[in-house]
C-alpha cells in the first residue's frame, strides 16, 4: 500500500503502483487540507464572490458570471464540452498513471475539491477502473484539458473504461460496483481537468521504459564489442575520470564489468590501435543519454507532486489566485530532451549493426552474418529496418515545444505542446527498442562465429537469455517475428 499525500510520491513508488498493482490510500493530514480547501469554495459560492472557475465561465468566458443555481450545470457542461480527445487511446498503464497523478495533485489541498471525489479516484486505482482516454487533442497548457476531461467523464458515469482489454461504458462499471456516479459541485470539474497529468503520466511511463532500455543497450553493445574484438582500454577509468562526467564514468564501469574475463575483447595494439567511435565512445555517447535521463527524472519527480490546476486556494480560502501552473513547458522541454537522448541510443546502435553485417568492417565475419552468403541474405534487411527506424526517429525528435498555436480567442496565446512531445518520445523509445533488439540479434549471431565459450561469463548469460527468445540463424526466416519477440522481451512489461 502506497500512501499519497501530494508531496512525497516518487518514481519508484509510481512504478510499483503501475506495474505491480499496489494499492493506494489517502494520507490523513492531506485529507484535512482538502476539506479546508473545500470549505473555502463553499464560502465563495455562498457569499457570491466572483472567482474564476467557481462561478465564472472558462477561458475567454472568464468574465461571464454564473449564478449559484447553475454551478453544478457549469461543471457538467465543462467536462462534456472539453472531452474532445481524438485518435487511438493511451495505453492502459498511462491511463492508470493519469488517475494516480491527478489524485496526488489534488491531495495537496489547493484545489477546493471534495474528499468524496478523491476517494472515488482512489477506488478507481485500487479496483483497476481505468478510463479510456484518446491520445490527441491536448495543447499542453490550460492543462491537458481534453485527455483529463475523458478521465473526469468516467467519474460522472459517462465515457468508457478498460475492462480486459475491451472498452466498457463507465455507467455499466459503476452499476457493477454498486456505486452511483459522482455529481460534480462548484470548481470540481475544473480541478479535475486543469493539470499536466496526461503529458506527465506518459512521461513517467516513457522514463521507466527508457531507463531500462538504456541499461540494456550497454550489455547489447558489450556483446557487439566481443563480436568485433573491441578494445577494452577505451573503458579504462582514468580516461573517464579525466573528463569528469559521472554518467560517463558509470557507463565505462558497467562496460568493464560486462566484459570482465572475456577472451574475445582485446587490448590496444593486439589487432588494431583504436576502434571506431560507435565502439570506442560508448561511455561518452551512452553516458550523455544518461545525463538526459537524469534531467528528465528530476523534472518528473517535481511534477508528479505539483499543484497544476487553476485557480489555487491558499490561507484557508483568504487567498485565491489565478495563475498558470497548468502550463506544461517544463515537461515539454523534458520530453523533447528525452526524445533526443533515446534517438541517439538508436543511432549509435544502428552504426554498430552496420559493423556487424558489413564484411569490410566486421573483422572476418560472414557477409550479413549469412549462414550461406549469396544463397541466403542473413541479416541484410535487418540493418535496413534499423536504418528506417533511426530515420523515423530523427523526424519525431523535432521538438514539439518550439511550436505554439493560440487558443480560446487568444486568451490562451502560448501553449507548450508538451503532450505531443511526450507521445512522440514514447514512439521514439519503441523504435529504439526495436533497433537495439536488432543489434542483439546480430551480436548474438556474430559471437557464435567467434566462439561463445570465449565470452565473458556475464555476457554468456545474456547470450543464453537472447537464445531462449530468438534461436540461432541457421537458415533465412521471417526475421520480423524475431525482432518483435526480442523487443517484447526487452520491454519493462516482460520483467
UniProtKB/TrEMBL annotation:
UniProt entry tagged with the keyword Lyase: yes
Enzymatic class: lyase
Matching InterPro entries: Aromatic_Lyase (IPR001106), Fumarase/histidase_N (IPR024083), HutH (IPR005921), L-Aspartase-like (IPR008948), Phe/His_NH3-lyase_AS (IPR022313)
SUPFAM superfamilies: L-aspartase-like (SSF48557)
CDD domains hit by this protein: PAL-HAL (cd00332)
GO MF annotation terms: histidine ammonia-lyase activity
Coiled-coil portions: none
Main location: cytoplasm
Catalytic activity: L-histidine = trans-urocanate + NH4(+)
Modified residues (2,3-didehydroalanine (Ser)): 142
Matches recorded under Pfam families: Lyase_aromatic (PF00221)
EC number: 4.3.1.3
GO CC annotation, single: cytoplasm
GO terms for biological process, alphabetical: L-histidine catabolic process to glutamate and formamide; L-histidine catabolic process to glutamate and formate
Signal peptide: none
Cross-link (5-imidazolinone (Ala-Gly)): 141-143
Localization annotation: Cytoplasm
Modified how: Contains an active site 4-methylidene-imidazol-5-one (MIO), which is formed autocatalytically by cyclization and dehydration of residues Ala-Ser-Gly.
Pathway note: Amino-acid degradation; L-histidine degradation into L-glutamate; N-formimidoyl-L-glutamate from L-histidine: step 1/3
PROSITE patterns cross-referenced by the UniProt entry: PAL_HISTIDASE (PS00488)
Protein family (similarity comment): Belongs to the PAL/histidase family.
Protein name as it appears in the record: Histidine ammonia-lyase
Provenance organism: Viridibacillus arvi
Species lineage: Bacteria, Bacillati, Bacillota, Bacilli, Bacillales
Gene name of the record: hutH
Amino acid at each position: 500500500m502506497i500512501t499519497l499525500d501530494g508531496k512525497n510520491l516518487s518514481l519508484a513508488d509510481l512504478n510499483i503502483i503501475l506495474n505491480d498493482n499496489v494499492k493506494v490510500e489517502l494520507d490523513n493530514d492531506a485529507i484535512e487540507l482538502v476539506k479546508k480547501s473545500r470549505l473555502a469554495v463553499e464560502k465563495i459560492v455562498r457569499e457570491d464572490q466572483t472567482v474564476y472557475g467557481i462561478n465564472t465561465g472558462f477561458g475567454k468566458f472568464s468574465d461571464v458570471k454564473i449564478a449559484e443555481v447553475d454551478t453544478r450545470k457549469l461543471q457538467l457542461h465543462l467536462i462534456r464540452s472539453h472531452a474532445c480527445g481524438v485518435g487511438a487511446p493511451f495505453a492502459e498503464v498511462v491511463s492508470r498513471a493519469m488517475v494516480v497523478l491527478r489524485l496526488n495533485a489534488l491531495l495537496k489541498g489547493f484545489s477546493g475539491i471534495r474528499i468524496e471525489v478523491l476517494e472515488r479516484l482512489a477506488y478507481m486505482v485500487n479496483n483497476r477502473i481505468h478510463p479510456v482516454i484518446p491520445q490527441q487533442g491536448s495543447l499542453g497548457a490550460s492543462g491537458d484539458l481534453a485527455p483529463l476531461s475523458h478521465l473526469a467523464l468516467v467519474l460522472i458515469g459517462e465515457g468508457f473504461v478498460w475492462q480486459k482489454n475491451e472498452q466498457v461504458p463507465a455507467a455499466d462499471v459503476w452499476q457493477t460496483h454498486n456505486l452511483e456516479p459522482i455529481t460534480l459541485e462548484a470548481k470540481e470539474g475544473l480541478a479535475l481537468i486543469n493539470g499536466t497529468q496526461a503529458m506527465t503520466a506518459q512521461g513517467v511511463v516513457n522514463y521507466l521504459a527508457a531507463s531500462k532500455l538504456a541499461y540494456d543497450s550497454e550489455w547489447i553493445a558489450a556483446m557487439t564489442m566481443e563480436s568485433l574484438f573491441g578494445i577494452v582500454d577505451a573503458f579504462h577509468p582514468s580516461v573517464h575520470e579525466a573528463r569528469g562526467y559521472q554518467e560517463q564514468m558509470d557507463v565505462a564501469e558497467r562496460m568493464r564489468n560486462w566484459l570482465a574475463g572475456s577472451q574475445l575483447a582485446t587490448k590496444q595494439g593486439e589487432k588494431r590501435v583504436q576502434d571506431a567511435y560507435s565502439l570506442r565512445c560508448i561511455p561518452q555517447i551512452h553516458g550523455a543519454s544518461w545525463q538526459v535521463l537524469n534531467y528528465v527524472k528530476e523534472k518528473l519527480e517535481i511534477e508528479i507532486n505539483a499543484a497544476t490546476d487553476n485557480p489555487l486556494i491558499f490561507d484557508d480560502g483568504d487567498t485565491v489566485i489565478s495563475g498558470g501552473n497548468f502550463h506544461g513547458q517544463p515537461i515539454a522541454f523534458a520530453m523533447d530532451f528525452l526524445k533526443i537522448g533515446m534517438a541517439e541510443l538508436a543511432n549509435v546502435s544502428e552504426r554498430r549493426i552496420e559493423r556487424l553485417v558489413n564484411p569490410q568492417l566486421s573483422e572476418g565475419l560472414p557477409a550479413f552474418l549469412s549462414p550461406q552468403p549469396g544463397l541466403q541474405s542473413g541479416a541484410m534487411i535487418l540493418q535496413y529496418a534499423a536504418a528506417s527506424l533511426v530515420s523515423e526517429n530523427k523526424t519525431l525528435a523535432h521538438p514539439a515545444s518550439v511550436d505554439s498555436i493560440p487558443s480560446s480567442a487568444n486568451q490562451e496565446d502560448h501553449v507548450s505542446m508538451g503532450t505531443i512531445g511526450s507521445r512522440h518520445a514514447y514512439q521514439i523509445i519503441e523504435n529504439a527498442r526495436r533497433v537495439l533488439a536488432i543489434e542483439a540479434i546480430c551480436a548474438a549471431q556474430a559471437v557464435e562465429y567467434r566462439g561463445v565459450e570465449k565470452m565473458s561469463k556475464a555476457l554468456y548469460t545474456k547470450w543464453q537469455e537472447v537464445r531462449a527468445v530468438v534461436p540461432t540463424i541457421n537458415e533465412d526466416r521471417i526475421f520480423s517475428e524475431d525482432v518483435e519477440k526480442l523487443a517484447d522481451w526487452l520491454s519493462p512489461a516482460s520483467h
